[in-house]
Amino acid sequence: MTTASTPLRNAVLAAVALMAGCASGPPPPAELDTRNAQCAHCGMVVSDRRFAAQIAAPGEEARFFDDIGCLTNWLRVQDAPLAPQTMIYVADYRTKEWAPADTAAYRRVPGLQTPMGSEIVAYASAASRDEDRSTSTGEAVPAGRVLADRWRRGDGR
Question: Where are the domains of the chain?
């Protein structure tokens, strides 16, 4: 083997290792650009992270939603299951951090102005929800109702 081929071989091996590392496990949440990201359901700008949600699928651009109600409605009209290892994330209303939608805690707060009027907010956990006194007048909403009982992925989840 010549010296010139060794750097090329190392570069190819590094690229293969990088691709293998990226392909394992579900994708992390994407960064939200609150000035430019548009809701995948209604087309409005996703300008307030507290109400945002996203669908992250391997090899695809993230789909953002400006209101949890838009995520729910988008899921209801899908005919095919989501791709394997797809993740749905919601922003914790209190901390603005992303959390997996299927394990999040939700609350509907009558009179709360959300971007599209769903009045639903999400929290990473029940503990985070319980710490937020600003929404304590709301009622808990099961994740299955928020996710339209239709969150299906090709991997059976």
Answer: 27-146
